[in-house]
Design brief:
single chain, alpha+beta, Outer membrane efflux proteins (OEP), 11 helices, 4 strands
Length: 496
């Protein structure tokens, strides 16, 4: 009964812990917290493991129950004559009792098995939450990439307008007071993806940048010669190649935007699948990515992994299961006792000449006989083999625990190095972005004053936006590594 009450309280606490996960990342956006809650409530895989845990709790009272009593009933088709009457029927009731402490040991084993199921549920939950975080950052990186391309498109259209003005009045100097606004300051997104979706897109963009720069330089030289030729011939307006070059860039960026929108739709469908929602349901995402606050202490993290990681907890419970199983099998090798009662229904004998003169006071009286039963476990080999099996399995669980702990500790150090690398990248790209912004402002002024050509403007502009996107991707990678470290320590632990 005590075991049952304790486990019921344990189940209640489990439910509370499960839904408290939404407060883990206080610095995260409300939408992400909401999606974590939805995933924890709706994901069928997680619900299946929780129901398995609840089912395992029901094994505890089963293990602690007494064996069912046995009732044997026998009838004589023709009553049998015995001394004192005729036996009509026989009733035997027997209750067996296992060796002392066997029931308690069985309950202990069932309790540890239920806790194993709970640790499995925690592991499934943590894996699900890590998938939600990762997919959230994938989507956020794509949103950052989309905004980056849209900003690039806007700047290109402004450059196109400036180039057209130069073509329309090449000698008037009317563009001397015209300037192209610099890209808006980069904002750090609240979500990003550690996967290469956004980086791959930038890789392709970088390639196009290089090729564009090469072609632009060649076109620029051709434009110079062509311009002089056209000035002599008067057939082509000077600077028209700049306009065409900008238009080519615009078409390419518009195509990139459409590709990104398609990829976002696919990733949203995957995200909704994690939440067990319709794949076409809209996902609310932030417009920018922000680096999460995280303080790393190696000693504290290793201690939390050892105390809180569900895989380690499951292996600890497995060891306790086989220990209890060995104890129970030892007790099962001892005799079982039974107490019973036999009741014989006896009718009266018919009077015969031989019965005359005899005392027939016992004739027809029913008989009640107490009984004792005992098992004889004389075949000892099987019991000894069962105990050795449990002992070996207990040792195996202990070794698996040590191996898993070593793996988790090495994973922690690997993630710490990756976290430091991502932080270094963030600082690098932030510095490069500032330098690129200064260079962009200067090259635009030079272009307006005809001291530089359009190729340089486009190259520097692409560099600037590229550094901003790389910075967002590095932030996404950093946030994902933070989530991975927190997953090792289990998401229900400290936020640090």
């Amino acid at each position: 009964m005590q075991h049952n009450i304790r486990l019921r309280l344990f189940l209640t606490a489990t439910v509370a812990i499960t839904w408290s996960i939404i407060s883990i990342f206080a610095q995260e956006t409300d939408s992400l917290s909401h999606y974590l809650e939805v995933a924890g409530r709706n994901n069928p895989g997680l619900n299946a493991d929780f129901l398995t845990y609840k089912a395992s709790l029901e094994k505890v009272p089963q293990a602690g129950s007494w064996p069912d009593p046995e009732l044997d009933i026998g009838f004589f088709l023709k009553p049998m004559d015995i001394v004192g009457g005729r036996q009509i029927a026989d009733f035997t009731l027997m209750q067996m009792f296992p060796w002392f402490g066997t029931k308690k040991t069985a309950q202990t084993e069932a309790t540890h098995m239920a806790r194993m199921a709970y640790e499995q549920f925690r592991e499934t939950r943590d894996n699900l939450y890590l998938e939600v975080y990762t997919q959230w950052y994938v989507l956020s990186t794509l949103v950052e990439q989309l905004n980056n391309n849209r900003e690039n498109l806007q700047l290109l259209k402004q450059l196109e307008e400036l180039a057209l003005r130069k073509v329309s009045s090449p000698f008037s100097g009317s563009t001397s007071g015209y300037s192209v606004p610099a890209p808006s300051p980069a904002t750090k997104s609240s979500s990003s993806s550690p996967t290469g979706g956004g980086m791959a897109g930038m890789g392709s963009m970088g390639g196009s940048t290089t090729s564009s720069g090469t072609s632009s330089s060649s076109m620029s030289s051709m434009s110079g010669s062509g311009g002089s030729m056209s000035s002599g011939m008067g057939s082509i307006a000077p600077g028209m190649s700049d306009v065409l070059r900008v238009q080519l860039e615009v078409v390419e960026i518009e195509n990139n935007i459409e590709s990104i929108l398609s990829e976002i739709a696919a990733e949203k469908a995957r995200f909704n699948a994690l939440l067990s929602r319709p794949t076409g349901l809209e996902v609310t995402l932030p417009d920018s990515i922000a680096k999460v606050s995280f303080l790393f202490d190696e000693a504290v993290s290793q201690g939390e992994i050892e105390n809180q990681n569900p895989m380690l907890g499951m292996l600890m419970e497995e060891e306790q299961v086989f220990r209890a199983k060995g104890e129970m099998e030892k007790k099962m090798s001892y005799p079982m006792f039974g107490i019973g009662l036999q009741y014989m229904l006896i009718g009266k004998n018919a009077a015969t000449p031989m019965d005359q003169g005899m005392d027939n006071g016992m004739s027809g009286m029913d008989m009640v006989m107490p009984m004792i039963s005992i098992t004889l476990p004389i075949y000892r080999n099987k019991y000894k083999a069962q105990q050795r099996e449990s002992r070996f399995m207990q040792q195996a669980a202990r070794e698996k625990y040590r191996n898993t702990l070593n793996t988790l500790q090495s994973d922690l150090l690997r993630l710490k190095h990756q976290l430091d690398d991502a932080e270094r990248k963030i600082a690098l790209y932030r510095k490069q972005e500032q330098l690129a912004l200064t260079a962009y402002q200067l090259v635009v002024q030079e272009f307006v004053s005809a001291k530089s050509d359009l190729t340089n403007v486009i190259q520097v502009q692409r560099q600037l936006l590229d550094y901003r996107l790389r910075q967002a991707e590095a932030i996404a990678e950093y946030n994902t590594k933070v989530a991975s470290i927190r997953k090792l320590r289990s998401f229900q632990t400290s936020n640090n």
